[in-house]
């Protein structure tokens, strides 16, 4: 038996992400998903009891993976103290692995498309913003406290960075094949942050 083949459940999730993002959640049926996976509807219901449960699985996928490469304080403080300017700024970043980047883009698109009609999506987006702002604020304030940065308007710079990152992500939500353009935009954004943040050395 071949190893690392996608399970039926993972194939269902992949198809759901793709169809919900392309056609809109309300326009996609369980039969559409089963057909896309190449299974009978009965098999689909064996894994997911309803379309609502599938939507929740899409949300859960995003929540599970969105912070997996974010550094903790014990990891980023040595970089702030001893890294190059570029390494310090890069420590702000969290990149999705190549194996899940498309699905992360699709899950973000689904969430953003439903924030005005779905309380779960609204809460997820609010948590995403609050968590990211908290992380950025703590990171920048650590840099000031450690003496790597001169004092600056931390909330404003944090908001600029977060807004730029979200804009870059949204720009490829409908065209996931442009994920390399997303990465290119982020590289340019990091270069701009090096110029904005008042490094002492």
The total of helices stands at 10
Q: According to CATH, what is the class of the largest domain? A: Mainly Alpha
CATH architecture descriptor name of the largest domain: Orthogonal Bundle
Distance between the termini: 56 Å
For the CA atoms, what is the radius of gyration? 20 Å
Instruction: Compute the number of strand runs.
Output: 0
Helix content: 55-70%
Portion in strands: under 5%
Rounded mean pLDDT score: 88
The coarse silhouette is: elongated
The biggest beta sheet is recorded as: none
What is the CATH third-level topology name of the largest domain?
A: Tetracycline Repressor, domain 2
| Count of discrete domains | 2
User: By helix and strand content, what is the structural category?
Assistant: mainly alpha
- Run of helices and strands: HHHHHHHHHH
Explain this structure.
- The protein is mainly alpha-helical.
- It has two domains: 8-55, Homeodomain-like (Arc Repressor Mutant, subunit A, Orthogonal Bundle), CATH 1.10.10.60; 67-196, Tetracycline Repressor, domain 2 (Orthogonal Bundle).
- It has helices spanning 8-23, 30-37, 41-47, 51-65, 73-82, 85-90, 101-113, 119-145, 154-171, 179-196.
- Helix 1 (8-23) crosses helix 2 (30-37), helix 1 (8-23) packs across helix 4 (51-65) and helix 9 (154-171) runs antiparallel to helix 10 (179-196).
- The model has no long low-confidence stretch (mean pLDDT 88).
């Amino acid at each position: 038996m071949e190893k690392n083949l996608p399970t039926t459940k993972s194939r269902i999730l992949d198809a759901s992400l793709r169809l919900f993002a392309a056609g809109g959640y309300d326009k996609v049926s369980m039969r559409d998903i089963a057909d896309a996976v190449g299974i009978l509807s009965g098999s689909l219901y064996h894994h997911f009891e309803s379309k609502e449960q599938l939507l929740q699985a899409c949300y859960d996928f995003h929540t599970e993976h969105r912070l997996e490469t974010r550094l903790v304080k014990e990891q980023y403080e040595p970089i702030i103290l001893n890294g190059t300017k570029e390494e310090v700024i890069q420590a702000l970043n969290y990149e999705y692995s190549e194996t899940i980047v498309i699905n992360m883009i699709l899950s973000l698109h689904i969430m953003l498309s439903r924030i005005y009609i779905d309380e779960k999506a609204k809460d997820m987006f609010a948590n995403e913003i609050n968590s990211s702002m908290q992380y950025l604020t703590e990171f920048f304030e650590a840099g000031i406290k450690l003496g790597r940065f001169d004092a600056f308007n931390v909330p404003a710079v944090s908001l600029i960075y977060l807004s730029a990152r979200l804009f870059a992500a949204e720009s490829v939500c409908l065209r996931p094949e442009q994920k390399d353009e997303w990465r290119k935009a982020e590289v340019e954004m990091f270069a701009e942050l090096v110029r904005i943040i008042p490094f002492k050395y």
